[in-house]
Amino acid sequence: MQYKRTLLAAAIGATLTTPVGVSAAEDKSTELESVEIIGDQENSFTLGGSAHVLDEEDLEEKEYSDIHRIMREVPGVYFREEEGYGLRPNIGIRGSGSGRSSKISLMEDGILMAPAPYAAPSAYYFPTAGRMSGVEVLKGPETLRHGPFTVGGAVNLLSWPIPEDSEGMINMEIGEYGGQRGHFRYGATEGQWGYSLETHHNASNGFKDVDRSGRDTGFDQEDYVAKLRWSSAPEAEIKQSVQLKLQHSSEVSNMSYLGLTDDDFSEDPNRRYGLSALDQMDKDHDSVSLQHNIAFNEAWSLHSTIYQNEFARDWFKVASVEDYNNPGGDALGIGDLINRANNGDSMAQDILHGDASANDVRIKHNNREYEARGVQSELNGRFNLAGVEHELVAGARFHQDEVDRFQPVEIYDQQNGSLVRTGIDRPSDGDNRVEEADALSAWLVDRVYIDDVIVTGSLRYEDIETESRRWADPGRTNEMTGDATDNQVDDVLAGLGATWLLDENWSLLAGVHQGFAPPGGSAGKGVEPEESVNYETGVRYGSENLTAEAIAFYSDYQNTVQNCTVANPCPNNNTSGTQSNGESEIQGLEASLNSVVWQGGDLRAPVRLTYTYTDAEVTADADDGDVQEGDNLVYLPENLLSLTLGLEERGQWSTSLSASYTDEMCVDNTCDRSGVDDTFKRTDDYVVLDFAGTWHLTPEVELYGKVDNVLDDQEIVSRSPAGARPNKPRTAYIGTRLRF
Predict the structure, then answer these.
(1) Phi, psi for residue 525 in degrees, rounded to 5
(2) C-alpha span between 349 and 638 (Å, rounded)
(3) Contact 463, 439 (CB under 8 A)
(4) Do residues 456 and 498 make contact, with C-beta atoms less than 8 angstroms apart?
(5) What digits encode the pLDDT tens for the residues 179-235?
């Protein structure tokens, strides 16, 4: 029964594992490092829901800087690739919708990190995956603690913690297509003060070629993080600490929303049309947080955080051309241009190829500024009531965010295959608007230990007020009051989870909770949030060399809400606002296995397997009829599989071969309707094989090499935003890591 007792001890000692900091009983109350929502993988075995942790060793094994590749090893997580490098992540959990990761609670160190989580949740900013020391994914009833998005789950990225001694690392990497990556960090603790400095740089020339242009299709990212911590003296009666964290990142990337026709994709998936030659993203992100942790005694502690995030970006990208069938009428969007070419329209194909002139080529400055700020606090307590052990968490957060859109459009003509500037349109209406949100959240979690059963009850309250304003002139002197909208929603959510520790190896879990997702800042009065009831049940096994789990889940959506964007237009073709898509049901199975299949001396052969099966459909028509009963949900694969085989000699070398399979996906809700031609409505299913190997020259110096997409198989992995898009081709890298 030793393993069973260890699980119970870990659960009690972790004090719900946190954003409250760590248990004073573990003498970590003065630490304020990466704020975890799960802890280590052993802690996940005691939760009444699915939870997965990838630690620093897991991340260094494959040296991924693409969050999509990292997430392949977590069951129940879906992704849609867009440009091959993970710069614009599209991540969903249990069918919640993957578009711009707008339906997950995205956090770094326990702090909401989407640019405007309530007003504009589409995550055009995503924390730099290459600098992280861990990734946590939480699903089930425990997500009520980490809203506002409780339908699918939460993703928490962990930055490098301030070390207890002096410690540093330099990582340098080069690769094909001009790939370069550098990562430096150093930190130390002396007496009551600790600090860390870190920078991460990642760049590439890109793997695509633009017609009639020498411009590359790559990117250049820079990220800087600084932390400073003060802790009370060891002899202090009340332990406390304060940590300041500063972060700045920037990116310039020559990425586009314009994809390819299927015929052109089959000839060269890495081609890009000359219409997109000027497309470029330019963005900056700044964040600051101040955290205070105080342990009143061994049982009670308080963790508080003040934070502010600012994000500005200008994505200059081709949006439309004049409709050659209706000159002077409505513009023809680039997605419609692709559709016409796919269906045999030779004029559309000639425009894309640069063989025909095009008037009024509109390239929009998708220029937006985001700001999010808030204060949150959690009280953690452990007490005994009537002989029953309780762990209590009570927390609250006040949050404000906004997005300011000021989006002029530059106008060009395509002449002899070149773009010639002819004018500019100043922004008005939807291109000149501000959306704001004020949110008050509160949560209460009580974990109760009754013999071999851990029961967790959760409550969450959300009160959200949103407002949207538009102007008719660039100077914002003429507010379009008729287009102003405001909305207010509030909800109380409940969840109940239980874990039954059967013996030293086996445990059962079950849970039910209410799902919630705010409707967004542009929602009109009376628009309701997304709501669901989510169930799960499963079994876990854990021993020294084998951990495994299988969890079945079922979600019943009373109201499926989609935030409309250009990247993910709604079924009514809107690219702004919010649309209700009716009721739906999602059910599936998550399975994972982590084992050492062979071991002899210092040699060992680990294996990791994850699998997700999902079945989903709309169960009632939407009010406007655009989505109908029996329709599919978009970009939701039926099967996902990831398998990693390793062979290593401890302290000498290690290798891993990873295979991932992604099933085909429907790109709109009509894909499976009777009589609908789905020729251009599905992605391809595809397999990606990656290899990585590391050699330890000394305990401090490592050399590594890796090859992404060993088989060089490129398929249509997405048809959004506009046209067929490939995954990254075979790309090799070599690098070195020095620890000091």
Answers:
(1) -60, 130
(2) 33
(3) yes
(4) yes
(5) 999 999 999 999 999 999 999 999 999 999 999 999 999 999 999 999 999 999 999
